[in-house]
Amino acid sequence: MDVLVTGAGGRIGTHLTRRLLASGHRVRALGFPGDPRAEALRAVGAHVVVGDLLDPASLTEATADVDAVCHLAAAMTLHGASDASFVDVNLRGTFNLLDAVRRTAPGIGRFVYVSSDAVYWRGHGAAAYLPVDESHPLLGGSVYGATKVGAEQLCRAFLSTYGMPIVIMRPTATADPEELVDRSGPFGRRWFIRSALTWYAGRTALSDTQSSVMSALEAADDGSDRLFVVVDPDGTESLSMLTSADDAAAGLAAMIEPESAIGEAFNIGPAAPHPDREVLAHLGTRLGLEVVEVRHPSARPSWYVSIDKARDRLGYRPGTDIIAMVDAAVPL
After folding, report:
1. For residues 187 and 226, what is the distance between their CA atoms, to the nearest angstrom?
2. Nearest to residue 237, comparing CAs of 208, 280, 185?
3. Contact at 8 Å (CB) between 118 and 151?
4. What is the pLDDT of residue 76?
5. What pLDDT sits at residue 83?
6. Which of 127, 135, 186, 309 has its CA at 20 to 30 Å from residue 50's CA atom?
7. In the chain, which residues have pLDDT < 50?
8. Is 89 exposed, middle or buried (0-12, 13-18, 19+ CB in 10 A)?
9. pLDDT value of position 79
10. Residue of 280, 308, 282, 305 whose CA lies nearest to 294
């Protein structure tokens, strides 16, 4: 099977490309001009095709007579993309790809769109209910989440109008183990006090809530390398989900062939949510760092999804939890 993977050089895309190639599929990897990840993709056996989601004419070679598409490429919050980029890449770019596939690959067997659990988030407070399943209302409470909802609707429109065999994947936050201890990355500023303060100090403007959190972190900072966990003023901690990128790739690969998946959406995440205190305590033990508890009213509410549908319909079985990811990131 010829499979086009957009975002093949990203955290999920890298694992997916290797899985597909190991299963005997041929992978076309869409790379932007001058993409620094192109050589690594070629080295594992992918055929890199240069193109740009915002340039429809450049997509023809990538999509021509392809058997399946896994559309991972997106403007993301974790990468600091602007609201305008979310709209351009996630909406217009997805439309351009769908339209190119419709014109150049009439026999396509599957188009998997990688959305996000951000489609369920309402912008404040907790989810309508927990665990969040695929029947939860699509709320899109951020610009990013709204563009993911819109892109899902575009995919469904191409299914109903043109019969394109669409499947939608909604992963939770996803990472490779080494990202958990990268102090310059998005997880570093979530867990390391000094990284968080550096990030806040680099913002051109802070909301009242962000300023308040920054003040609380400054009060907890003694200048040393320390971890922190934010809990409610009464000490209540959150339950969260973080998915191994390899598990996410396995879930995505399972959506390519089953006919019963067409037209469906699937949450992809770890087997169970994790308590934030437990994760930080384990990370602190592995790193030999103190963990500071910061009590603040802006502590994130618990957020976790149900993966029962993917288990039952796709045979999805995540194999790595966040404790195992910490152990891989900080081996003894």
Report:
1. 14
2. 280
3. no
4. 84
5. 93
6. 186
7. none
8. buried
9. 63
10. 280
C-alpha 325, offset from chain centre: 16
Residue with tokens 């095709």: 49
pLDDT for residue 78 = 65
What are φ and ψ of residue 129, in 5° steps? Answer: -160, 160
Which two structure tokens, joined as six digits, stand for 178? 């080494």
Sequence letter at residue 28: R
